[in-house]
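RECORD TYPE: protein structure
NAME: DUF5074 domain-containing protein
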Amino acid sequence: MTTMKTIYILAAGLLLLLAAACNKDDSTGTTGPIATLKVSGLKDTFTVFTHQDFLKINPVVENEQNFDFYWTLASTDFIPGQGAVKFDTLARSKDLNYEVLQSPGVYYLVFNAKEKSTGIVRQVVKVANITTLTMNGWYLLKENGGKTDMDFIHSTGRIDNWIANFNNGKSLDGNAVKMSFVPSFRTTPTSTAYFPTIMVLSANDAAIYRIDNGAMVMNFDNMFFTKPATRKPQAVIQPVANTQLYVINDNKAYFLSKGTLFGNMPVNINNQVYDNISPITAVGAAGICWNARAKNIFCLDGSNLTELGNNGAQLRNMKADLKWMNGYAGSRSAALLLFRNPQDSGYLFKLNVMTGQLLYNSTGLITAVDTLKPEHSLMSASVIGGNYDYDVIYYAVGDKIYMTDFGSLQETLLFTLPAGETVTAIQHIKFPESLGNPPPASTLSRIAIATYKDGRYKIYLHPINGTGTISGLPQANFEGEGRVSSMMYMEKGAGTRIF
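PREDICTED:
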């Protein structure tokens, strides 16, 4: 109610400004009272979706032959008395049929009638509430024909090739690499205009897109203080601290403080070289990374690379390679890491990823370690996914979906996929994010499995039972063209992390 009262008060103030401006005869300079304009067929408020709807209005005007008509639009985001209100002209006709392309927000929609005999303009001011479909639904990162794009699926339909749809038909060049929800983005260090975005990486490019209108905010060519010589985007890391963002390109780390650009991070720390950082990353209280040259786990903390303390001695100078890891930031504050040694045995670590353990050498960083024999099916997995709520791991071997738990390492065959389908992604989709004390209850919790066959993807959203087990589904929830490598659910502009 308060919001609508504010709109009406602002509209009343705007009407006074418009009335004062329109007492003047455009042709003779004479002034006089504003004649009555009789219009019907106009609602007080028009609600439309940007980049989806046409604003169609057909008013009825008494004695319409005596007027010339035009429609204008102005944002309500102005301060009376500080400069003129900026209006955009939508049409120069009585009837309006306008494709809505403005950013979401509340606008003044003004129907203008200019009397032919006197030049006097009369206005009728209404409210246009421009919103967007793109803040609620599923984002599916995919590759198709050497291009990277996203399909967006919402409650009443879908927008295929979302990136191209909002960017003049241009998808990103190269196959899909990663995507991440990036909240609270801004374009300058002093800006107070924050907005949610998605960062998308392809093999040859990287870009950040506004969620509300799909506009590209920056791409590989303009997101760095010094653009890297090699274009090889590999990972994007959004830490819990929303003011920061990281990207791994050509096995080197770059740091962005939102409102600025990506800057180079150190390459040499404590006689260790960090020029071969793995694209396998995770998030705890800090970004968690793997130095494939030194075979060390380390952290991204602000603009610094931070090595583990003595509490992480087992994760330094390892005689193994990182195969997979997943971080569960927030209320759980845990991470699982899987390594393979030269004998093809596996090491599965569970970490406490709170700030003290990761950054300040507090005791209890490594909470458990298991060893897997080479013949364990997890060591042959093509795709691996985690579960935020349980110490279980889901994985694909051929067309079969397995589960194992950290404690017993029992190999449980859950189900077999339809013939010919290849798994391309396994994720726990959990919304909202488990931050706060207590954390909010989940409104959505599914294990999402993406498959590929004959140029098309399928997405299966599996309910999870009380022990973390999932069952096969009779049919996919979503289908489309291309190969999906990552999935994200979003509500009111807040997206899920990749688990």
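COMMENT: The longest strand covers residues 105-115.
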